[in-house]
Amino acid sequence: MRTLRRFVESDDSSSGWQRAGAATVGLLLWWFGVVAFGDHVPFLGTHPATTPGIGGNGLLATLCLLAGGTLVVAAIRGGATATTTATGIGLGCLVLGFASLFVLGTGINVLAVTLPDTLLGMVAGFVLLALGVGRSEE
Predict the structure, then answer these.
(1) In whole angstroms, what is the distance from residue 29 CA to residue 138 CA?
(2) What is the largest CA-CA distance in the chain?
(3) Above pLDDT 90, what percent of the chain?
(4) What is the CA radius of gyration of the chain?
(5) Sign of the four-CA dihedral 14, 20, 23, 24
(6) Mean pLDDT for each 10-residue chunk of the chain (138 residues)?
(7) In this structure, are residues 126 and 90 in contact, taking their beta carbons and an 8 Å threshold?
(8) CA-CA distance, 109 to 133, in Å (whole number)?
(9) How many whole angstroms separate alpha carbon 88 and alpha carbon 95?
(10) Is 41 in contact with 61 (CB distance < 8 Å)?
(11) Which residues have C-beta within 8 Å of that of residue 35, sequence separation ≥ 6?
(12) pLDDT for the residue 136
């Protein structure tokens, strides 16, 4: 039990809505990854799958699972960990979203993203950035 108390910081500098928002986006990303793997999408296919919720391949699903898990763990931990992780993953989602716009419909689309995937990633990136850089109310 002492280890769990050390894991969840006592001097929490992030507010509850920041932690809840990061956990919600993390769970949403997990849902995308689980649905994609449940539909047996090819791991490195370049043609988007017709899975509801995600149009990419298994590599994109893996990235969703990793980012979602990281966000949930950071939200549980709280403090600066939650805000820094939300900011970092949000920035990564935005960069990936903008880069995906340039490779849509080409042979170098290694994540097999579609336009809805790109737009969803950008929205998630903006939400995570807002959660990460938002001031906590103390």
Answers:
(1) 29
(2) 52
(3) 36
(4) 16
(5) negative
(6) 52 72 92 81 67 72 93 90 91 93 87 86 92 67
(7) yes
(8) 31
(9) 11
(10) yes
(11) 51, 52, 53, 54
(12) 52
d(CA 127, CA 42): 29
- The three-state DSSP-derived secondary structure of the chain is CHHHHHHCCCCCCCCHHHHHHHHHHHHHHHHHHHHHHHCCCCCCCCCCCCCCCCCCCHHHHHHHHHHHHHHHHHHHHCHHHHHHHHHHHHHHHHHHHHHHHHHCCCCCCCCCCCHHHHHHHHHHHHHHHHHHHCCCCC
Angle between helices 79-103 and 58-77 (to 10 degrees): 160
Token readout for 111 is: 């994540």
Kindly state the tokens that stand for 70: 């990281």
> Which residue type sits at 39?
D
Nearest-angstrom CA–CA distance, 138 and 136: 6
